[in-house]
């Protein structure tokens, strides 16, 4: 039974400390954690290293979703600290969303000591295989001496355009044995420039006299890219359209307004009808979110040409500038977002009145996290003239992002109010993240649209041709027996809340939430 | 842009219905679901097929954990219905536990239509790769005509000894296109018999006059196996010891008592000290739950021989009978569980007094789900003379099983009271499962040990040699800022609850919970 058993290093820096110092030196300053035994040396190292803010999460989906929200606002990666295969597994759904958002993110996943894995202890699993589907870069640390360099490589992988998920697996003995100090982050490649032929082809399409859509995603849709795209539109008559789901859009009064490709497939097909050329700029080609019987997967109309001006990994602002020059676009014009609607003081509590209230009360600099799904389909249009703000969306369709994402966005954005527009069924996946908001005193207002159903699925049941659903099927889409009490849930996690059932009550609650520091939850009974 | 787009079948039975009918015909009568768009035809089929009970869960970890608890009690698989890769990912942590419990389980994971996958729609991911680490059998359905047979194969895979996780991926068009009716389940192999040499070797060890440990797991530890093992012990002086974590033990007054290998590594090493032979019967060799610096991975003492009488996949009862015959064991003796302690009426609320109250109040036929971790280390010993009951444990170390497992156990065990002994930090991972208990009116009493910490990690921090933890490290193990209010959380999910801080209040609350139908939660503030 001879075996190697590592000894904890008594020296000045073990592998864990070398890794934490490397992360901090590489600009990773926040760690969203849910640690276990195998990560205890990493946790202990946090007290010996200045500069890493640790944010405890009650569930790993909260940690990964928060890291996504953080990076979208901070424009640099956070780290997560997760406990072996199951801990990583719990975080995968929001890593899926982060991957679709092209968010830079560094996961540190604890693992058994290298010499312990062969004994198949109960928590053993194949972590690398679990990590791969949601990660662009996966590595298992082999020694404490190299773990700092592994961390530096992970940062470089995460920061490589357009932003990637890097997962570093940290065997316990590579944390507790002697490390070798801080490793420098390797050079991060510049974004590739779009080819001249891509610019020329887009210019030809714009010169054809036929209807052209500039389809924007990633960098191109954020803010500055829209200004250039709008100059091109002013010259050529092209239309701008954002993807259905976007990582980040900086918008509101004084910015170039943009609509998004609708989620419902029939509306999406209608929105693309008549275009002869679709130019992709940081966007991917429009496809159905799901397949539906008798409906196409590719949404562009028959005979429409789809061109790529710049991929998400390429420099989209540069490509837009070159296209603007090629078409001889004029200088930027004043954006027309139209007037902001007045706050409605009477009437029903519906999507339009709610959207108008939100539109009027969004404070300048707010960060809106949008997981409102069916309830919120009008909200984007109704807020286009609001005070300047940032809009973050669910990008990968894996529900349960809103509460974690708003948590991470708030960590990244002190002084900015975060408002999370939250569908109820989705919010229940990761409701534990409310506790982290209370623990960290984060300025997040969570507005829960309490329709007590998986409402989106009621529409989808018909869309996929499942006719005449019976009581069992309807039951599987209903959350009303018993109805959740969101104010109790919030209180259970230490967050103050209020239930509203009328328009004036909603307006009053939102005013209160916006004006009051710390987390607050509003349950809107629909 | 030509492409195949499936048409929903208008015929009498589509693929989804063929699959549901095959599951029911194969004895799979419960489906723990959290469906999405791609699973709508499966959901719709539930109304056309008698015999499948659908239990809606708010989060997929609730569904997989419930399926584990169900199968442990029903001795046959339940199915789950999960939504694409992220839905499966959310269920993986409790699938890990189920895999370690050797639980038979059939996952149905929805997927995009076969022809839609190449377009990389937002919810697309590599589901097969995600499934493999926790599944013994993975298949993606290729056509509606074959999906019934795929389901039958999944059942056979799940039921093959010792019990396995089977994951069938269901592309949406294999659900909505024309199916081919009910497929019969292929023959399920009998459990293999242990070899004669294994029996002879164990008999030689028992005849050696040296100390022998019969280490029991799986079938061997449940109930009937312990009777045979005790006959062998009566003849040979061998000691019986269960694994640290066990799928199911039927125990209490009138049954053969058994201790478990302790979790803390020093205690585990001490428990095995002095043995010269360890005979594994449905158990795996004792290994450290984690690696610790300077401590061994294999826990058996130097020079101790480890023999396998029967693997978990083999027929352990047959092997025990043959060993009993080989050593000429006497008939079964009356088990000695000793007297049941009186209910303490005064004194502090601590592990010993709480254990005594639970021991006295466990009703006959109760199912105890044990995720009590640090708080509950005495509970097993203090309940050995309780009314006959069943004990289910966290087997894979992936915390967040208790509330889901108790939910599934209750679905499988009408008329039996389920009592879930729940550590607070662990319970927060999957707290949403309380709602399913309310929705299904399940007889579950959840007792939350509210120590407001990841208490197990405080011990582990020292065990792994992380000396002098600072405030950041301690903070990462603390759940007291803010303290969770479990009664509010339960109320939020529609479950009645009570907070107790004294021994009489705890006794009164447990009496109430045991006597009252439906779910009830007791928060014990420690």
UniProtKB/TrEMBL annotation, chains A, B:
The protein's name in its UniProt record: Acetolactate synthase-1/2/3 large subunit
NCBIfam families in UniProt: PRK07586.1 (NF005760)
Domain Thiamine pyrophosphate enzyme TPP-binding positions: 383-524
Record flagged with keyword Transferase: yes
The keyword Transferase is annotated on this UniProt entry: yes
Every Thiamine pyrophosphate enzyme N-terminal TPP-binding domain range: 13-118
Pfam family, one: TPP_enzyme_N
InterPro entries: THDP-binding, Thiamin_PyroP_enz_TPP-bd_dom, TPP_enz, TPP_enzyme_TPP-bd
EC number: 2.2.1.6
Keywords: Thiamine pyrophosphate, Transferase
